[in-house]
Write a structure and sequence with these properties.
Blueprint lengths: L5 H8 L3 H8 L7 H14 L5 H7 L5 E6 L5 H16 L3 E6 L4 H8 L9 E4 L6 H6 L6 E4 L8 E4 L2 H14 L5 E4 L9 H16 L8 E2 L6 H13 L6 E4 L2 H13 L9 E5 L3 H4 L6 E5 L1 H20 L14 E3 L2 E4 L15
Parallel strand pairs: 1-2, 1-3, 3-4, 4-5, 5-11, 6-7, 6-8, 8-9, 9-10
Antiparallel strand pairs: 10-12
Helix pairs in contact: 1-2, 1-3, 5-13, 8-9, 10-11
């Protein structure tokens, strides 16, 4: 059976093809009765909008790309789910690409993978340099996520420095003073780890607690095994922290395992807090306190910004429309979620 077309809907409803088009495009100047009759015809015939044709007529493919470092990192998997949902609301398809934090792959994403296949790119970079972004002057439009770069393109992130400061202040308010930062990076970089480390140091300074560079536990990657290895290493050296600020939940879950292996009670002996509020942290034993970014808002704002830039890029020359605006730097909300890994971890005597 042939796929029903607009003219079939129009004939069944007894209206013009233009009227059917007005209903499909939610044109306001259509009576409720006419809208109802057309919708009944659409439902009866099983008509479906030809999105491919609509996109081609507008000079678009209807496909956007989401590029993240690792899909098996729960934060990025959860973020991808939100991006897909937001895109579907706007009749868009999302191509998800894993960069592995490789600079060449991230540069290829900036260039639209060397084709006109995607209308725009949402990119969470790990290796891009500022000069890569400055060299990107053509299509496709790009929105950046995270802390690495925030110049020359629209950018969406939480305030990582403030979030880490609030998490550290929570640990300090519990009376903890021997706080280690798992994944901390005390250098001049502009990445997420550096921003969160700055927040850690600001909280210490605000509480009058001296900063010790050895309180930073570097890791090769932000996976559970790396968190466990880092904590085991310092425990084997005889270091006995009373709190851990872990720069993502994967590191924190690994740290919990290492502490358990050494007989440390959480939170009685060591309070632990992470970042990202991934699902696994809610089901750990103990459940994990964490900084929860509004991942749904990150996705929504990123998709909206990208669509705005796509509209600018595909607007016919000379057509009326809002004037282009400079790159937008959007900060979305975060909140501190307190669970068993810090709750009840008050000030106490002795060293475990």
């Amino acid at each position: 059976m042939a796929r029903p077309r607009i003219k079939d809907v129009a004939r069944h409803a007894g209206v013009s093809e233009k009227t059917v088009s007005n209903v499909l495009n939610d044109y306001v100047h259509v009576s409720d009765r006419t809208r109802r009759v057309v919708q009944e015809a659409i439902d009866h015939l099983g008509y479906r909008i030809n999105l491919a044709g609509r996109h081609l007529r507008s000079g678009r493919t209807g496909i956007i790309a989401l590029v993240v470092p690792e899909l098996d990192v729960p934060y990025f998997a959860e973020l991808a789910r939100h991006v897909v949902r937001e895109a579907e609301k706007r009749s868009l398809t999302v191509l998800i690409h894993q960069s592995g934090g490789d600079r060449e792959r991230e540069r290829a994403a900036l260039a639209g993978f060397g084709s006109d296949f995607v209308d725009g790119v949402i990119l969470s970079p790990l290796a891009l340099a500022p000069e890569d972004l400055r060299a990107h002057t053509g299509p496709p439009p790009t929105v950046l996520l995270g802390e690495l770069l925030n110049e020359g393109a629209d950018h969406v992130a939480i305030d990582n420095e403030r979030a880490a400061r609030e998490a550290t202040e929570h640990l300090l308010a519990l009376g903890r003073r021997r706080i280690l930062t798992v994944g901390g990076q005390d250098d001049d970089g502009v990445g997420t780890a550096q921003a969160r480390t700055r927040g850690f140091r600001l909280a210490l300074a605000g509480a009058g607690v001296p900063y010790d560079p050895t309180s930073l536990l570097p890791v090769e990657a932000f996976h559970m095994g790396d968190g466990a290895d880092a904590v085991r290493r310092v425990l084997a050296e005889g270091v006995r922290p009373d709190a851990l600020l872990c720069l993502n939940d994967q590191l924190a879950l690994g740290a919990l395992r290492a502490l358990h292996g050494y007989g440390a009670r959480v939170p009685e002996d060591v309070a632990v807090i992470g970042f990202d509020d991934v699902e696994g942290g809610r089901f750990g034993v103990p459940s994990l306190s964490t900084v929860a970014p509004d991942k749904e808002a990150v996705a929504r704002v990123a998709v909206d910004l990208l669509l705005h830039r796509i509209d600018e890029a595909t607007r016919p020359e000379g057509a009326d429309g809002p004037s282009p605006v400079s790159p937008q730097d959007r900060v979305v909300a975060h909140r501190l979620v307190l669970r068993e890994s810090t709750e009840g971890a008050g000030e106490r005597d002795g060293v475990w």
